[in-house]
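Friendly challenge for the regulars: who can give me the structure tokens for this chain first? No prize, just bragging rights.
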Amino acid sequence: MSIKKRGDVWHIDIVAPDGSRIRRSTGTADKKQALEYHDRLKVELWETSRINKKPTRLFEEAIILLLKDGQGQSKFYCKQAHAEYFLKIFAGRDLSSITSEEIANSIPTYQLKAKIPIANATKNRYRSTILRAFSLAYKLGWIDNVPYVPKYNEPKVRVRWITKQKASLLISNLNLQWMKDVCFFALSTGARMSEIFTLTWNNVDFVNRVATITNENAKSGKARALLLNQDAIDLLRSLRFKNNSRYVFTRSTNKRLCDIDRRDFKNACSRSGIENFHFHDLRHTWASWHVQAGTPLFTLKELGGWETLEMVKKYAHLNADHMLEFANNVTFTAQSHFDGTKLSVNSERKAI
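First reply, four minutes later:
Bragging rights claimed.
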């Protein structure tokens, strides 16, 4: 019999009609259920070889595709956590048997450890992960279609920025010197927190005034150049020989930073009269200053390392001066000897 018990669970060992060997867990400690699974699988293998029926693909196989696809991407650990969560729900299931409703109902609504509601943005991350697994399976012909799961509504994009005067006040009100350096660099380059904390000296080129964000540290998973203005260059030169760490920004212990001092940042915002402001808003502030100075959106996209132009359009309203030239190309009064009143009267006469 090609069925054996390992521990409490029964496993099968079958030779398929094409000669391949299939070994897998039945997922049950009940021998009767294990035998039914064994017999059903043998029938499916025969049908696959004889009548071109699609082989059964398990949910675990789609998860393997997902993890292979996501290797090397930023926040890969999130995909791993999501995969572990969904495996607890769908492990052992035929991929094609999982319905859209089941997937929608499986997305968590509360944090697993603390009973705190999960934001819609986080729910959408879970949704994207599992649908990516199904999408990869579909591309390989394992399933006939990708299940439909509606996206959760997320709040509109939040753009919070401060003036240069407020920014100077914020930095002066920070107590920790390394926090002053980090915030000043963020305002000078628009770099993300993770990009700042992982920046090493061997990736800083003073001659060409550029720092390299490596692919493992970039949000998109693609290396990019971080251009350094004079403010950033002056700051980096002042920090160059202050410590022996390979990282540019460190505490006094020379260890790599993992997070800002949130208490210092919050207190500095309070003393500066700045409300509802987060560290990432320093990047929004940098981008807003650029737009107000006339930097084209496409150029800003490249400077900030955004993937698409849509991501920077949220700043477009901050400078409409470049559109006034075109708005004035078409006017009534500039192209007619009628003034506004006469034009209105003549229009009424023509209508009569």
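Residues 340-352 have pLDDT under 50 and may be disordered. The longest helix spans residues 31-51. Your move, everyone else.
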